[in-house]
Known about the structure:
Elements: H1 2-10, H2 18-37, H3 41-53, H4 60-86, H5 91-111, H6 130-135, H7 137-182
Helix pairs in contact: 2-4, 2-7, 3-4, 4-5, 5-7
Amino acid sequence: MNYLVKILAKSRLLKGDVDLHLVRGSMVLIFLLFGYQKWWEYEVQTLDPFIRNGPLTFWMYPVFGLHGASYFLGVSEWLTAALLIWGFWNPKAGILGVLLSVGTFITTVTIIPFLPDGWDPAAGFPAMKGNVAFTMKDVVLLAVSVYLLKQDVVRASRSAVERHESREVGEPRATAGTELAAK
């Protein structure tokens, strides 16, 4: 096992930000594909128990209607994907995208206890079935979103500190240059 650890420690695969890029890219793909589904009738129908029974989504049908609620979710997911993509280069945009992602998965995780027929009647809780089993993945996606949020906040903080330090270094030179030009 130690030999395997040494090989992996030296591997280029585990150096740098590969993990961050893989996680971000995976989240982008998820939001793009799930956002795409929201434009089709089969998904409008599939979403019904989730929206109708969700403590944070029940309001969507009265506000947007059946199809409008699905379209709203599709646009939200594509906006999240776009901000996550931009986050590859701009950590502040990444933060906005990840905040939307966190909100998405908090919303979907809160639906789990309220989904009808979500627990197997013979085995009972915690034997999941149907929509509960499908939605349980969102617990992991929420954790992934929190990981990305931390990474983007660290990247944005580091960028802000670097900008601040470069201004501090630049200020004395600018002041001295200004004084010399004034003489």
